[in-house]
Write a structure and sequence with these properties.
Number of domains: 2
Shape: elongated
Oligomer: single chain
Radius of gyration: 20 Å
Largest sheet: 4 strands, antiparallel
Order of helices and strands: HHHHHEEEE
Structural class: alpha+beta
Length: 135
């Protein structure tokens, strides 16, 4: 009986180490839940590959009076609408809904091609602005 219990503890220990190595280790500053679920993984890829030097992105952010740091915070706090998004197309397109620094609702579209993310569309729902930012 004791031998079986010791084998159980040994197996549970090996399993715990395996889970730690494959799922948790190497996630600097990111919680397990943010990196495990699809929304968190998409946000991580978007933030790490965001092209803030693109002329359309610069134009849209300046038109809506949003700094780059505020935009990154908006991405982190946003909800992704997977029903409107096209995650299986190439490039992948994701629709985000979030609140800006003054609390108004915004919708934006980001295209994710390989490792580069570009902002294609940005719209305030409460304070609409007409920005002509076509490339």
């Amino acid at each position: 009986m004791i031998r079986r219990f010791m084998l159980f503890l040994f197996g549970a220990g090996i399993g715990s180490i395996f889970v730690y190595i494959t799922l948790i280790k190497g996630r600097e500053g990111v919680s397990f839940w943010e990196s495990y679920f699809p929304e968190g993984r998409v946000k991580q890829k978007t933030i790490s590959g965001l092209n803030l030097t693109d002329s359309t992105t610069i134009c849209l952010l300046q038109c809506h009076e949003i700094t780059q740091n505020q935009f990154i915070t908006m991405i982190k706090e946003a909800d992704i609408d997977f029903e409107k998004s096209a995650p299986h197309s190439n490039p992948k397109t994701y629709f985000y809904t979030s609140e800006n620094q003054i609390g108004s609702q915004v919708i934006f579209e980001i295209q994710l091609a390989d490792t580069v993310a570009t902002l294609n569309y940005f719209h305030h729902l409460t304070v609409p602005k007409d920005c002509d930012c076509t490339p």
